[in-house]
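To whoever picks this up:

The parser on our side crashed when reading a file containing two proteins. I've narrowed it down to the boundary between the first structure block and the second sequence. Both blocks are reproduced below exactly, byte for byte. First block:
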Amino acid sequence: MRSAFSGFLRRVLLLFSALACLASLCLPALAEEDELMIEEIVENIDLDAVVYGDVPWDFPVPLEDMEPDYVRLANKHYLLEKDFYAAPLVTVKSRKADRDGNNTNGGMLKASGSKMQLQETCCQALVAMSEAARQEGHLLYLKSAYRSYQTQNTMYYNRLKRNNGRDDGWVAMPGSSDHQTGLGCDVVPRSWKNKSMNGKMGREPECIWMEAHCHEFGFILRYPEDKEDITEINYEPWHLRYVGPAAAAYIMENGLCLEEFVDQLQAAIDRFLSAGGDPKLVEAFIQTPADASDGAQS
């Protein structure tokens, strides 16, 4: 981002040059009590505004604080390609502990012995979050992680078959599953690791803790209770999505769902390009809806 830094530095130098001229011309004529302090002028100018080249980026999260794949939206309007996932995928280890309960292998408590995978940074963040939760008396279990397009396809049509062709909103159509990103995971309390999941889980202390603290580790609650009309997904207090620390903090602190964040981000990109911003800086973040004629949720 050398061009961004150069543009920013140029603005700072111009600012202080202008202030120096103002001080030399005006200050001698002012009474002592009316003196203009440079600090007071600078205080009112947003020196932290991000500028790429000569074009300001008017979105709360700077581009360099986001990874395009981390904020990639997957739903029935934004379908993933069959081979898409956020690389690299790693196998989630089962947690091993010493006598004091300390994690010795970077693993995670799991609800089953099945092999599960997550994107590497996401996996590391999830282990860190689970350890922080454990320190406060909460045991978190990973129940579901990455699913391929093919696996989701099988799950979806099996669900339709069991429901006489009716989509009940619990299994996503292939290409629309957050799990395919490799960044979505189902995390449950110990008391729910062998139970069918439903919205009542949100009352559990572990889920309350996750909603309050997940953003500190780069996660968001992907399907909030008050956003079902936007996500078109049933409330899932267990489903976390890794988007990175900066995006997660903005989303959770402002009560957004990922759909709302992406809408805001795309609007900011449109403004940036309309002002003459470099398309190369934002092209990886541009997402185009590919509406399906029919399909489900979750």
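<<boundary where parser fails>>
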Amino acid sequence: MRGDPGMICLTVDVEWAHPAVLQDVVDLFEAHGVRATFFCTHAGVDVGSHERGLHPNYRRNGTTLRGLASSLGPAAMAGIEEEELYRHVLRTTQTFAPEAKGVRSHSLFYDSLMIPLYREFGIEYDSSYQLPLTPGLQPIWKEYDILELPIYFADHFELKTGATGFEANRLHLDQPGLKIINLHPNMIYLNAVSDQQYRASKAFYHDPQRLLEARSPRCGVRSMVIDLLEQLALRDLPTATLGEVNEEWRSRPRWG
């Protein structure tokens, strides 16, 4: 891996997916011999030998903070500092994957207060910055010994922009730069072709059968991911988990 100018990393934001939907993604990766990083939103996420990271939801309308508000009451909740709310969310999420060394916040939410908390909780890397299709990306050192691993491409970005037309070859996989691909189980299972279709499917988000029935026959997220996996195998392109990138990068000089 050392010195490789074009490492490709497949990552998945679990997003409370049904176990059957999540297993579908795992099966796709394993059929093509690719290890990935799964950012966990809840307990019981079993992805075998793949890496697990944390996917904390810091939104106040998210399950974790709604639960806290319900137990404390509105008045007490209003008096809690943001840092303590973040600490509560992170502590809760860490129980889902205690071994995790990496984090990606739900909705790519970012606040500089999180960085020292990541150090406090033993987190080594974050992957919440999205710089779509930007060539030459590489890990970035932040304060508190946290390594930022920027996102190169996301399926939800594709649904919103149509940037590649669901064509994996337009990802320019052979160009220099770290290429972290951010995927979502329901979008893959549904073979989502538009943001509107994906949002409509949330009415049956946890129903694998209805999602399967709604799967698009056109070119979409699923067909693009399968094409991507086939290209990785056929062209023998370099892949790694984010944990492996983090570990290797920490062996390099930090500044300059």
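After patching the parser it read the second block fine. The chain has a mean pLDDT of 94. The chain has one domain: 8-249.
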